[in-house]
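Fold this sequence, please.
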Amino acid sequence: MALKGGYMGLCQVNGIDLRVTSFNVNVKQEAEFYEHIIGLRDSIPSGLGTKGDVGALNVQKYFWRPGVKICQGNFSFPVTVSSLQEFYDLAKTGDYFNLDYYYDCDNVKRSYVDCRVNSLSFSCTAGDTVNLNVDIMGRKLESEGGGIISYQSSQKLVTWDALEITSSSSNGVQAFNFNVNNNCKPIYTAGANDTENLFPKGIRVGMQNVTGSIVYYTKGVSYDGLDPSTSSDTINIKITTGCGGSFSESLTVVYTPIERQGNTKLPLHTLPFVGVGNALGT
């Protein structure tokens, strides 16, 4: 068989190009069977003297129906300032967006419409790039095929040296991560109300949860007077130098008990947190 062109890994969201390192957003649908309408699931044994032992095979899966459809999956990429701001805002607000993905160099593309960020994971470790993993839920696959695009200009990725993390206890930050979970749910309606061929009518955003942690290079970390059961803190995230723009956002959090480890390697301690109130800002 003929070999197709190489993996392209190129996404477009609201006019922003993303060179993704992995992509797994697909249409999901299962056939559902009614296995006990006719009889038993397996063949009936004979010679055991049991009622109904006739040696017949009860064929299954005569009765079936197609399940509902959903577009769902995740993709990962190292961020630029513009892509980080875009997805931070989409995760915070839960707004709809459209997603185009180019699978290879031979004109293979899928377009998903009315997507929402189901969850977003931000992570960065000293000496590395800032990375996002985005899990989305989309209402419909609109088209497949057609279109080849390429980058027209170079872009600088956000690296650790441009990232500034400050809080009441941020001395010697070695790693930082947070996760936003929007708990999205698909909404399906009766066929008379919708003609989308088993796709959902819409995607509903649930209660938003924010969790994460800060990892410190230090021999000991205290709460600096903060009581994790009664007081909240602000974690500021800034990108200010040499990355083609600026990013400045804050998380409102409370801390949970610090995770202390003892070993012969670097003295690293993890301070977990949970978002409270308008954790991602208004």
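The two ends are 55 Å apart (CA to CA). Residues 263 and 269 are 11 Å apart (CA to CA).
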